[in-house]
Every structure is written in structure tokens, then in C-alpha cells.
Amino acid sequence: MSSSSASITLIGAASAMNVSALTAFLQDYDLTFTRRPLTKPEEKICVERWNLSQAFTAEQEVNVRQTLLQFSDRDGVDYVYQQKSVDLQQPGLAVFDMDSTLIKAEVIDELAVEAGIGEQIAAITASAMRGELDFNASFTQRLSLLAGLSSERMDAVFDRINYMDGIEKMMKVLNHFQWHTAILSGGFTFFAQKIQERFGFSEVHANVLEIKEGKLTGKHLGEIVNAQRKKQLLLDIMAQQKITAEQTVACGDGANDLLMLNTAKLGVALHAKPLVRQNAPHPVNQLGLESVLYLAGMTSQEITEILL
Fold first, then answer.
1. H or E element, residue 230
2. Cβ contacts of 94 within 8 Å, gap of 6 or more
3. Which of 20, 57, 127, 259 is the most buried if burial means most Cβ atoms within 10 Å?
4. Which residues contact residue 114 at a Cβ distance below 8 angstroms, ignoring those fewer than 6 apart?
5. Distance of CA 68 to the CA centre of its chain
6. Which residues does the annotation mark as catalytic?
7. Closest CA to 290 of 78, 105, 23
8. What is the distance between the alpha carbons of residues 197 and 28, in angstroms, rounded to a whole number?
9. Over 50: is that where the pLDDT of 141 sits?
10. Is residue 299 part of a domain?
């Protein structure tokens, strides 16, 4: 397993033209590099790490990230720059958003479908995730519209939700290396705890639905898990587990994940909203959650050996 100082990881089928453009870009900064495939040629999605002769300066990095994002959007290939990888073989902490990150759904939208107001709530959710609305206000507004929904309908909602690609593979590897893992969700504990049990997450922090006489009251219990709360939870768990900042991973897709993505050493914006792609350090669109393992320097062969 490699954890080079500075690198660019390419995820997707880079053409000769793509490779030439990236080479020329690096030469403009007088950087040399070595290329290392992380996947086998026959695999559906190619991953290759370019280890750089040195890191970009802080002044250069803003422009570099913007240029690589433009390359990504143009080529359909992720170009992910990292100053340094985390080392999965050492103790670490990985935290994850739930909705549209660990699962392919926003649970509050799915509950709204059960209540017959799916489109109304989905529009508010989408706006909030794009960063256009205050999260707390939009959360409270959406939740109030669910008042009266039978709590029994939550099982049906969970049963139709699909997990994000790569979740089982990623969690088996993180658990193999005994990493501490947490779900930090603006969704609900009912769903997050089921995912925790299924994949072996260490802990869960999410919003608690108030239920009376078998029905949702449209209110929550306790503090809302918003952007600031997610960042603070990341810092709190680091302190509790005695894990250094250099060994932290965060993964999410929405505007309420940006603070934790920019706090962790490896902040992965997975299939993220445009605002988040622009402002998160490591945006990935071409793969699912296994991209976390590749950005940590693992090869597909190393991953496969752990899964056997």
C-alpha cells in the first residue's frame, strides 16, 4: 500500500489526450511524476495514481484544484489532488454523511412520499443541499409537514432504499484495519442505526424523530445535526479516540457536509452538488464509496485480498 506525499489520482478512462493535457499542466509547474495503476486493465473503472515530485504551494493550490475540476468536467475523469494520503494501516477515523452518500436516497424525501407530499418536500431538500437555504430552518419546515405520518411506514421506506455502490467493500476494509467509523447525518437515527448494524459502523449521530401514539409529531428531539454539529462531532470523536487530524476521512455530498469535508485530512465529496464540488478538497464522481480506498493509496488487488 502506497501513501505518497503529493499525488493526483485519476479515476476513469483517461485518453491519450487527457494524459497529454495533464502532463503539460504539471510541466508548467516544473513538476515531474511517476504513474502507478491502482486497478487492473480489465476492470470497469480505471484508477491510476500520479505521484508528484513535490506538492503545490498553498498559493498554487486554489488554481490547481479549479483547473483539475475543469479537466474532470470536460473529460468525465476524476482528477483528485492530494498533498498526502491517510495511512489505512494506522489508527484512524472515518465519518460519513448518510443521505445520498451511504444510501441512494434522502430519507426525509422518502418519508414525504409516504405522506403524499413527496414533490413538495423534495424541492426544499434539493435547495437546502445546494446551500440555498438555512439547513436548520429548512429541516424544521420539512419535518413539520410530516406530522401525523404513521411510524410504521418507516420500515417500508427503509426496505426500498438502495445502498451506495461500494459501501460493503469500503466498510469491510475499514473494519479490517480497525478504523473508527461514524455516521454523522442530518437524517434520522431510525435509518442510520439500521445501516450501522448492517455494515459495522462504530457509532451514529443523527436527528431523533419525536413519535407519539405511533405517529410522527413533526418535531425532533435534541440538537439538529447540521454542518456545524457535524464538524464538532468529527473533532470530538478525534479527541475521544486519540486520533490525529492526519488520519481522518470525511465523506458527504451536500452543503451541510462542507465544514467536515474541509476539516478532515481526506474530505471526499461524493457525487456532490455543484457548490460542494467547487469547495470541497477531493471531489469524486466516477466511482462509489470504494473511491475512499483508492484515495488512501490502496490497489484493487490489496482490496480483493482483504475481501476474500
1. helix 227-241
2. 174, 179, 180, 181, 182, 248, 249, 250, 251, 292
3. 259
4. 149, 153, 156, 157
5. 19
6. 97, 99
7. 78
8. 49
9. yes
10. no
The conformation of residue 162, written as its DSSP 8-state character, comes to: P
How large is the C-alpha radius of gyration of the chain?
20
| 2: containing domain | 1-84
State pLDDT tens for residues 88-124.
999 999 999 999 999 999 999 999 999 999 999 999 9
Is 291 contained in some domain?
Answer: no
DSSP 4-73: -SSEEEEES---HHHHHHHHHHHHHTT--EEEEESS-TTSSS-EEEEEESSPPPHHHHHHHHHHHHHHHH
Q: What is the pTM of this model?
A: 0.95
The secondary structure of residue 216, as a DSSP letter, is E
Domain assignment present for 187: no
| Residue 168 falls inside a structural domain | no
Check residue 111 and give its pLDDT: 95
How does the average pLDDT of the chain come out, rounded? 95
